[in-house]
Amino acid sequence: MPATAGAQSANSVLFVGNSFLFAFGSPVRFYRADTVTDLNSEGIGGVPALFKSFADQAGLTYDVFLETRGGVGLDFHLENKRGTIGKRGWDTVVMHGFSTLDASKPRDPAKLIETSRQMGEFIRQHSPAVQLYLMATWPRADQVYPATGAWAGQTPEAMGRDIRTAYDRAAAAARAKAVIPVGDAWNRAMRAGVADPNPYDGVTAGTMNLWTYDNYHASVYGYYLEALVIFGQLTGRDPRSLGENECSGFELGLSNAQVAALQQVAFDELAAGGLMSPSPLVVPLRTPPDRCVAQR
User: For 127, which of 20, 67, 205, 285 is 20 to 30 Å away at the CA?
Assistant: First the structure.
């Protein structure tokens, strides 16, 4: 049960972040916004709504909330959104910082580490028993391939490793339960040939481009993979158990093969980190195209 009287559900989840959570650059941004609570009243569904959809399909009950603002790190939320975040207690909080670690000092982890510590302390004032997670974000093609990028001349793999190292340090400072390995899953998808690693030279046939048009934010594929990794981490469920007929993938225009491939990548990454064991696959029966509407 919740540790504070303010917590209203045994499974309340708050997502705190920026456009990497509200899904800028894709139709995921306003997807199923009626199934989650946007604390800023901006009509966002985003990755939290995808998580909610996966959980519902798995027969799990979560009350999902989000507090997001584009182009910011955790410092913004600490300075401007304490009243919003602290209105009630939370059972689980997922949060992340700016995509280059520090907007004004790219590659410097100091701000992420310190603001993660501060946010962890603040959240525990209202929710002493909170399950706190940091989400390691993905490498940005626009920071790797152009000469002006902060990781110019390196690879998405290298940027992803730097980001993950910083989040490991931030998680220790915040006393977080774990780091959700979203960026690691992106790199795994590229190593496995599921996703193309360089959108600047075209996308290889049969692969997916995890980035959207700006080579910065995610495409539908990228956000879908992000949500699968979060789902597996928070619930302990094998993402593959959702099956290739998973309804949000259908609604967002992914093929069965693409859904299955991204589920496999999410599982492989979580299993590689010792975060998950294989579960028996529960593949839904093929159903009519309106199957998702009926589940709302």
Answer: 20
